[in-house]
Structures are given as structure tokens and as C-alpha cells.
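Input C-alpha cells:
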């Protein structure tokens, strides 16, 4: 059974990675899942965020946080692709106030205690009311941040997750699609 599943996965990768008419080699449309409970704690150091390898498709990050836990991770949106959505798949907490911030590049220049909105490309306080919703455009409208509208183009990005109150668990789906 394992050999059959590996064969199917291998054939899927070969087909997904083939060149199409525009000459752009597409990353496989798969899923990537990172769960802190299974894969280890994301970095709490702004200058060395956990490097994750996102795929074209859905990339789910599940983080468990408390008021003393800050999480940083970085990822690349491949050439010819865009970050089109960040969907709050789930959010569990008794105080309903998690924060997500995003910057261009592979690191945050300031830590969570010293970050101003102007240091960020965007950000958002989110919670239970955001379950099932795409929060990317709301992040781009953070007052005082650099701001953005629509999907984010190919490039390197870093995320800051922060919980200032009760323990929370969040599942965020970073959807990477072919650029228009």
C-alpha cells in the first residue's frame, strides 16, 4: 500500500511540475502543514524566524500560543505565483485577540516589544469572528503600516504571531496561487 501511495504521489508531482504554455514551471499544487504540537515550536526570535517551504496551494500553520509566546516564521512565494489569501481556518481562545503581522523579507528588524505599525507591511488583530474568512486584505489596511491591496506578489515574507492574553490555538491557511 505504501509503494502504491508513493507511486501516486510521485506521478502527481511529475504532472504538477511540468511546463505549461507560458513556460513557467509550476510548483506542485499540494498542501503544506506545520503544527507546533507535532513539528516543534516556531522561532521566538525576530532575527531568525523559522524557515518554512510553502507550496503552490494551501499551506496551513497551526500555532499554540500564550502571553509569553511570540512566533516568527518566513516563507517564499515562488516566481509566477502570489499569496492570494490568508484564511483563519480555526481560532480557539477565551480572550479572542490574536495578532498577525507581515513584513517583506526573511526577518523582522525589530522584536515584538519594539515593533511599530510603520515597521510592518500589514497586520491584524483577529479572533473567533474571523473563522473561515480571508484576512489578507484586512491586514493590508492596518493603520500606520506600509499597507497593500490585493494579493502579495512573489518574494520573501515573514510572519509574526502574537497572543497577549489567554492561551490560544490558531490555524491559518496561506493560499498560494498562480499570478494573474
Amino acid at each position: 500500500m505504501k509503494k502504491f501511495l508513493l507511486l501516486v504521489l510521485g506521478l502527481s508531482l511529475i504532472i504538477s511540475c511540468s511546463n505549461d504554455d507560458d513556460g513557467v514551471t509550476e510548483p506542485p499544487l499540494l498542501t503544506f502543514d506545520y503544527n507546533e504540537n507535532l513539528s516543534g515550536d516556531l522561532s521566538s526570535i525576530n532575527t531568525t524566524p523559522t524557515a518554512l517551504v510553502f507550496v503552490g496551494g494551501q499551506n496551513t500553520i497551526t500555532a499554540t500560543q500564550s502571553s509569553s509566546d511570540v512566533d516568527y516564521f518566513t516563507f517564499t512565494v515562488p516566481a509566477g505565483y502570489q499569496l492570494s489569501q490568508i484564511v483563519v481556518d480555526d481560532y480557539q481562545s477565551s480572550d479572542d485577540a490574536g495578532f498577525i503581522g507581515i513584513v517583506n523579507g526573511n526577518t523582522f528588524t525589530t522584536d515584538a516589544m519594539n515593533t511599530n505599525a510603520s515597521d510592518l507591511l500589514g497586520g491584524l488583530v483577529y479572533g473567533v469572528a474571523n473563522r473561515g474568512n480571508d484576512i489578507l486584505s484586512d491586514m493590508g489596511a492596518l493603520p500606520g503600516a506600509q499597507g497593500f491591496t490585493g494579493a502579495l506578489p512573489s518574494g520573501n515574507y515573514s510572519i509574526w504571531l502574537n497572543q497577549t492574553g489567554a492561551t490560544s490555538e490558531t490555524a491559518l491557511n496561506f493560499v498560494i496561487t498562480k499570478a494573474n
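DSSP finds three helices and eight strands in the chain. The CA atoms of residues 88 and 130 lie 6 Å apart.
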